Amino acid sequence: MSGNIKFLYWVIGIGLFVWVGCKNGRQEEHTLSDIIVIDLDSLEEADLLLSHHRVDSLRKFAFQGHVMTVADGWPDSLRIIKLETSADCLLGAIKKIRFVDSLIFISDYNEHLYVFDMNGRFLNRIGEIGRDPNQVSAITSFYVDKNNKVVGVYDGFRRCIHRYSYLGIKYDKITCGEQIESGSITDVNVIANRELLLTLSCGIDDLYNYAILSADDGSLKAYILPYQVKYTENSTRGNLSCFARPGEKLWLTALLSDTIYEYADGKIIPKFVVKSSLATIDAEVFVDRKEWISPAHAMAFLRDNGYSKGQTGIWANDRYLYFDMFCRGSWYSIYYDYLNHKGYKSKQYSRGNVLMPGRFLTTTSDAFVSYVTAYDFIHQPEGCIDVDRPLWRDLRERTMEDDNPILLLYYIRK
């Protein structure tokens, strides 16, 4: 049977019946016509998608043995937000960013949660770290409920959520995750219908990618998207985004899956299926392999046997879906225009050029957002930034090596 026919049968199979993954085991009917197939081989390959310049204006330069490609003038297509540095606001490596109500909420790996305005001016901190019951032991994650103007800080040590105002005034605390049967919670986000989406770890005895809780009292409502395989060692999905929020929609990935799902009104349905030159992942791949050491172990098996390894993280704004995927021997960044059903793929480069797009941490309605340390911004490899441009020259001259990071907002100009 040819690869295309097998793929078509597989898509039909997942399209007819999809498990919600909840306790009641309810099924939802879904038709093939509702599923969007993203064929990576059909996408235009481009070296850079976020510049208003034409492809023929690209130039190449060598850095530490790697050939980089940039467009003349491409930094001008970015928006830069230099975060204020002060004694009250010293950021470490950034963990999570959210843009809400013209404010920027940022947590770091030093257990801080800061609020900035859209010009990068520091406003206030949220959450007090300490051992007292009313303090936060560890800021594992946070969410921003813009409808109720509430910031929820998830304390992974005590398994509770501390709720604050945007100004950092403490409201209350609710338990979170006491009903979760196993594993740890790696991320918490607020979604529609007064619900919280919990991203779960993928270790020993973990069964599901996500859990849904009530945002009011933290009670468990459902599990969704079961893991395809069982692991013998504890692991996490790292800081990769497992979901995307274009407008009011919620799109989700499952570990080791080629499918992106949509969750709405308690139902989960396949939205996108990604096809590549590699064999498509399906349940039969894992039939004879009941246990794996870790997700990396399973991914190595898929790689060695010619299978796709699935998406490694997704982001979306009001027009584009972004994800990373291995294809034709290289890692690619995929930008799919889901409004016009066309897309582009860009081969990923080494970290020599820290201003190349990728490694995003959040989105706005029209941009993908990452950051660069002040040190790396100042010490860019030759050719990455035209220092003669007044905007960039001024910014570099007033940036110190130990300043807070600089946010980069990328806009797709293709």
Record keyword descriptors for this entry.
single chain, 414 residues, mainly beta, five-stranded mixed sheet, 39% strand
Oligomer: single chain
Provide the low-confidence segments as ranges: 1-31, 48-58, 71-75
**Number of helical stretches of at least 4 residues:** 4
Gyration radius, rounded = 22 Å
Mean pLDDT: 79
**In percent terms, what proportion of residues is strand?**
35-45%
Helix proportion of residues, in percent?
Answer: under 10%
Question: Which sequence of strands runs across the widest sheet?
Answer: 3-24-23-22-21
Structural class: mainly beta
Shape type:
globular
Distance between the termini: 38 Å
Structural overview:
With 414 residues, the protein is mostly beta strands. 9% of the residues lie in helices and 39% in strands. It has four helices and 32 strands. It has helices at 3-16, 295-304, 374-378, 390-397, and strands spanning 17-19, 27-29, 36-39, 44-45, 58-63, 66-71, 78-82, 94-100, 103-108, 113-117, 122-125, 139-145, 150-155, 160-164, 170-175, 185-191, 195-200, 208-214, 220-226, 230-231, 243-244, 251-253, 259-264, 267-275, 291-292, 314-316, 320-327, 330-337, 342-347, 362-363, 368-372, 406-410. The protein has a five-stranded mixed beta sheet with strand order 3-24-23-22-21, with helices on one face. Strands 4-29-28-27-26 form a five-stranded mixed beta sheet, with no helix packed on it. Strands 7-32-31-30 form a four-stranded antiparallel beta sheet. It is globular and about 55 Å long. The two termini are 38 Å apart.
